[in-house]
Amino acid sequence: MSLTLFLILCLNGLQYGLLLFLIAAGLTLVFGVMGFINLAHGVQYMVGAYLIFAFTGLTGSFALALPLSLLAALAIGLLLEYAVFRHLYARPHLDQVLATFGIIIFLNELAKVLFGPTTLSIETPAFLSGAIQLTEQLRYPVYRLATIGVGLAVAIGLFATISYTRIGMLVRAGSTTPEMVAALGVNVTQLFRVVFGVGAMLAGFAGIIAAPIFAIEPGMGDNILIIAFVVIIIGGVGSIGGAFVAAILVGLIDTLGRSVATDLMSLFFGPSMANQVGPALASMLIYILMAAILVFRPKGLLPAKGVVA
Q1: Which of 127, 159, 175, 211 has its CA 20 to 30 A from that of 278?
Q2: How many C-beta neighbours within 10 Å does residue 210 have?
Q3: How far apart are CA 70 and CA 150, in angstroms?
């Protein structure tokens, strides 16, 4: 593997990891703070992608479509919380799983009705098009670098908010002793609604920034939801710092592992077989890592220790 290819894979892995973090951060907040299993969280990622596609078509500008899509993703998340999810908080986890799985089916079919079953795409915004010369032999797309920068900024802002602000203090307290927080006059239900809305908006934001890179299609959030659950298990349920570290780790393992595993398999198999076995083996590495974490550190790499860390 050349140095240039290695750098490209590392940057791609970092970008993928930050995308996973945006999804896993909301998921770990909802699950860690509220104890609510929301399988429909991944579909919010799909909703964000379709929203940016629709608003870009209406406004003709990615920059104008971005805030509109974020507000719409937040509104849809709050609507689902008000209409469906809030009635499930006190119900058994099986009821939550079944109900949120129904939401997945409904929104996937709704996407087919509104946009059709075919794969859609949007162009990279003009002000972020082109590539930057990072080394003598490496030119990397500006948009991908921008997604890395935005992902890092959101991660820093979210960690600072949870760790050092009053709303973060209430979220951390509400995750451990909601009865005490309620006794102090805080509306815990409203607090949880804010947490849910922020989580939905983060997942939608991930879909928005991923839309110019990946295909937009019904069900696109289903597979990434599974990886997001792996991320929060590896990092520690309820831990923002753990979700960040685990997301970057999973992104790099998946991206670098595909190339390395393919190269290793080519020593034993032909090119065609190596190209099939290598990526599958790389995907297995993520779940092997999760299994090892569950055995040796059941609470995750950076457990929340009773609060969101």
Answers
A1: 211
A2: 24
A3: 14
C-alpha atoms less than 13 angstroms from C-alpha of 70 in its C-beta half-sphere:
10
pTM of the model: 0.88
Residue pair 247/235 in contact (Cβ under 8 Å)? The answer is yes
**Does the pLDDT at position 19 exceed 90?**
yes
Does the pLDDT at position 54 exceed 50?
Answer: yes
Tokens 């935005």 correspond to: 150
Question: What crossing angle do the helices spanning 142-164 and 166-176 adopt, rounded to 10°?
Answer: 70
Which of 32-46, 68-82, 253-267 ranks highest by mean pLDDT?
Answer: 68-82
Q: How far is 261 from 173, CA to CA, in rounded Å?
A: 44
- For domain 8-296, the CATH class is mainly alpha
